[in-house]
Amino acid sequence: MKKLFLHIVFLFLLTLQLNAGTAVDSLFIQANDNYAGGYYMQAIELYESVLAKGMESGELYFNFGNAYYKLKNYPKSILQYERALLFDPRNEDIKHNLAKARMYIIDKIDEIPEFVIKRWINSLITLLSSNTWAILSLFTFVLGIVFLLFYFLSYKLMLRRAGFYSGIIVLLLSLTMFFLSFRAKSLFISSNEAIIMTPTVTVKSSPRASGTDLFIVHEGTKILIIDSLETWYEIRLSDGKQGWLQQKDVEPI
To answer: pTM value?
Structure first.
């Protein structure tokens, strides 16, 4: 009787989950239909409803950004494209549309070149998703254990030697993939970048209104948040300039 009750509860919860998923899919399809029909504001409202129900994906944020782009709200389209890249960092369509939207913002800031090694590591991290790196790490770990078993169980010297060196190499590869998975997940969860949403913002030398004016940034500009204090963020631009601005002027990616 107890098992029957547990099965009924499980089926009930599963039905609720499936219905919720179907409802979200329906909203997403409806939003896309509105976008295709040129009803961009209605599409945005439906995309917001999908987000409110807990669904996130690169495709959703990409479509979200496209709707804002059609309404010529370039700062918000940039924000949504940047969020889409967190889910799908190698998607060329997202990168292309993001570059188009950036053409309409005022600030054209030169980036400080990254070290070659750092740029290569970042490219490697974003080559695959965090989950894919984790799966490959697990697979190579098991493979490394199998090779080491040859070392412990084989009676032939050649097999023992091959098993030992192959096992060590594959296990090191597994650890590398685990690190890449961890870094990819960390970059996704703890993104400390944001987009300026206020038309014109004066960046201060300190976190108070009486601070010295340092420079001005405009809506749509991407900034890096490096610290916070009460209602202020300390930020850095891609050219290295730093200062403080109010949190209400930006929206985190």
So the answer is: 0.69
